Amino acid sequence: MKKILVVDDDRASCELLGEILSAQGWEVSTADSPEKALLLSDRQKFDLVISDINLEADLSGLDLLPRLREKSPVILVTGFGSLETAIEATREGAWDFISKPFKVDEIVATAKRALEQNREKDEEIVTENISSGPMVGRSPKMIELYKEIARVAPTRSTVLILGESGTGKELVARAIHQNSPRKDGPFIAVNCGALTESLLEAELFGHMKGSFTGATGDRRGLWEEADGGTLFLDEIGETSLAMQVKLLRALQEGEIRRVGSTVSRRVDARIIAATNRDLEEEVRNGSFREDLFYRLSVVTLRVPPLRERPTDISILVEKFLLKARRNVGREHLRFSDEALKTLQIYEWKGNVRELEAAVEYAALRARGSEILPEDLPVKLLSDEFKQQATRFHLSQLYGDLPKLDELEKRYLLHVLEKTAGNRTRTAEILGIDRRTLYRMAERFGIALD
Question: Is residue 142, in this structure, part of any structural domain at all?
């Protein structure tokens, strides 16, 4: 029988997770303090450790990780997911990283994978020290993106970043660079869609004096400038087929040739590309080379649009509001609950970039210390949107698509929190009697005392 150690300073959470794992036929021990966790780990061998990061003690889950992972794989759990935490957890050798609130199915499946994999004791995924990047979000999809960045950053592999306009693809590219062995080298970004084919070639590969009108001297290209660092090719899907041939050659050979030159130059630059197009479809219709697509997409990352991570909107709003406060000179400016709710249920076709513009606009229009709904952009106040806003969207409330049992459990916990644990009031709100409430709590492993 597989043995699992669960570590969480919240005794109720610790026992609940223990019950969930025990139901899978595993032997579970629990520890509500780092000291107890270390003591149990010294006394017996565990096949897996699942630990919360924030243990409200001198030692955190990250502090325990180096000592526990020497004996068994460790899954870390946190309610404050971020790129920095994901990279630190990966650097310290965590087997996986899960953000709260997690789904029961998710943590069981993750535990099964950890137990089934024959993981060598000293196997680690190593990354460089993190830097405080501007990426923001704690939704499950962003946590997965953080983990992918942490895994790919220390490698030399080319990366293709997919995502709609305004989702922050360049931020992802910069995060990969900043957490790679090339972090002290240059990060050069070029928008392939902003230049004509001839100008793009000269910008990327450089040119020799007299190679075209206006070429008054030899000039290094951006590919050479990125030597020892990272070259980010944004909007790669906008390049012509002729330009794609030249890009493919440079990628395969690791060499570039300046316009007007017959001499090739070796350049050591890691290539990261990004596009908002469906390149697989472009390959099928013949507008993008298949060989270049496969060369670029050794690793493919997808940046989720804002509508798929609505729980991150309030975090992003707070970040953008800090900047807007400095701009308007009002440090105590804040969003009213009604205005924030309006932002949270809007669809944001322009993604994070559109949200940032809306926050800045609202801050400029606000008359007092509070931003009201009427201060928001006009499109958020249209009759059509107001009708949309009156609908009840479960995806907006939870940011994912849980099973019915999970949804029922979350709502019960929500009502208990709002009533401060008052069982009579909770039963009234749910429209059930107290006996049904107790059965419901027992089914979900919730202690009502």
Answer: no
* Residue 144 resides in a domain: no
Same domain, 106 and 162: no
How many helices (H) and strands (E) would you count in the chain?
20, 16
pLDDT tens, residue by residue, 333-367 = 999 988 998 898 888 999 999 999 999 999 999 98
Question: Please, are residues 441 and 412 in contact by the beta-carbon 8 Å criterion?
Answer: yes
Long-range contacts of 19-23 (CB under 8 A, 24+ apart): 19/445, 20/104, 20/107, 20/108, 20/445, 21/50, 21/108, 21/111
Distance, in Å, from the CA atom of 111 to the CA atom of 237, rounded to the nearest integer, reads 39
Residue 175 lies in a domain: yes
Q: Tell whether 127 is covered by a domain.
A: no
Tokens of 424: 């009579």
Provide the CB-side half-sphere exposure for 94 (13 A, CA). Answer: 28
Same domain, 314 and 298: no
Which residue stretches of 92-168 are H helix? 104-116, 140-152
Q: 429 is in which domain, residue-wise?
A: 403-443
Tokens at residue 194, please? 């902003």
| Residue-wise pLDDT tens digits, 4-43 | 999 988 888 888 888 889 888 899 999 988 889 888 888 8
